[in-house]
Amino acid sequence: MSKIDRDYIFSFLSIAARTVGGLTVFIANARIFGPEQFGVLMSWFAVAAFLAILPNFGVVPVILRDCAKAIDGGFRIVSDLLNVKLCLTAATVPFAILLSAILPDGVVFGLLSATHIADTYIDFFLAVLRARGKFRYEAVSYSIYSALSLIFIILVGYLSTSLELVALSFFLSRLAFAIVLMARVTQLYEDKFRLLPIRRSLFLAKSHAGYLIDLGLQSAMVNLDSTILRIVAGPYSVGLYQAGTKIAYGFCTAIGVISNVMIPRNSRRFSEGDRIGVIKSITWGFLSVGLALGVTNYGVMTLLMPKVYGDHFSSIIVLAPILSAFLVARFIASGFGIILVLANEARARILALSVSVAVLVCGCAWLGARYGAVGAAATLLASTLVTAGLMLVAVNQTRLSSVCR
Predict the structure, then answer these.
(1) 3-state secondary structure of 190
(2) Cα–Cα distance, 203 to 209 (Å, whole number)
(3) 346 lies in a domain?
(4) SS3 assignment, position 292
(5) Are residues 55 and 184 in the same domain?
(6) pLDDT number for residue 271
(7) Residue 58 needs a FRET pair 20 to 30 A away by CA distance; which of 72, 209, 310, 344 works?
(8) Is 212 within the bounds of a domain?
(9) Which residues constitute the domain of residue 347?
(10) DSSP secondary structure string for all residues of 114-132
(11) Does 227 lie in the same domain as 203?
(12) Lowest-confidence range among 105-114, 116-125, 264-273, 392-401?
């Protein structure tokens, strides 16, 4: 078995552990709280995600792309970006505290905000491990973490039907894993991480502003629909909608399996001129996997999920064809997005996502108010198709430019 094959397997095991663990937690909470309270929890989960945009600032693809090419293993890159994260986290925390004091369910919102921020550090350190080829360590550590956090969070939910305690269990489990990963990353480098002056960190943040905007738009694509649906249709519709989309997004994590290996492996090949070959392999790879998982998603949502979620969620069957089509479109768009990352075409990604977010906001406000969860799902599909179409145009321009050379 080649090293690339092993990397794919370990990456799959890692993301499978993350997906199964996370999905099981959300299903358990849905059964415990029912559509109404589950909708409240998930709507605040979606709103809190926006506060994590700044500390995250979208540089995971940069780490995967650049650290794999760096002679020193990317220590300078990792050190600089970690300083930026710390600086932006310090700027975000006061806003989280202020909003927690103002908003209803403020404690839940504050804890979920802290959960999302801790998640950004988990993603950051995992990206470093992948770039250094430590896929096996990631798979083992994430499997152990997922099992332990799964037991912890579900136990808290069953013992106490308090949204505050469930939110606290989310945060504590993420924080513990982030600390473990940080310790492992520091062992990879002989040099020690040092704090940079704030001015230097802000300068670095500004140089990566394109990735921050890209991430913000991606976050809007994932979380705005539930936020708007809560306003126009209420938490019950959010609960049904999230119950369906969690399944589809669970399958979407296969995107990470492919991209975690594909970006580092194709970065040098793409930069050395084999653009057309890379574009073909990525496009067909994502399309074939997307079609297979779209069919699987339809079967799972129609045959299995109504029994797993319980009678209160039986109506999610009507979302199955829409969300299955969304899944295929999402894979196609993600393949094009990876090509644009390799081509360093952040502007094209931002343009595509900006138009898609506009479609999502307008469509969800209109169709969500009229048709509830079904309208929101239809809007999600439409906005994803717009993303795929606009990115296809940009990828085609990239291909033509390589031919002209």
Answers:
(1) coil
(2) 10
(3) yes
(4) helix
(5) yes
(6) 65
(7) 72
(8) no
(9) 222-405
(10) HHHHHHHHHHHHHHHHHHT
(11) no
(12) 264-273
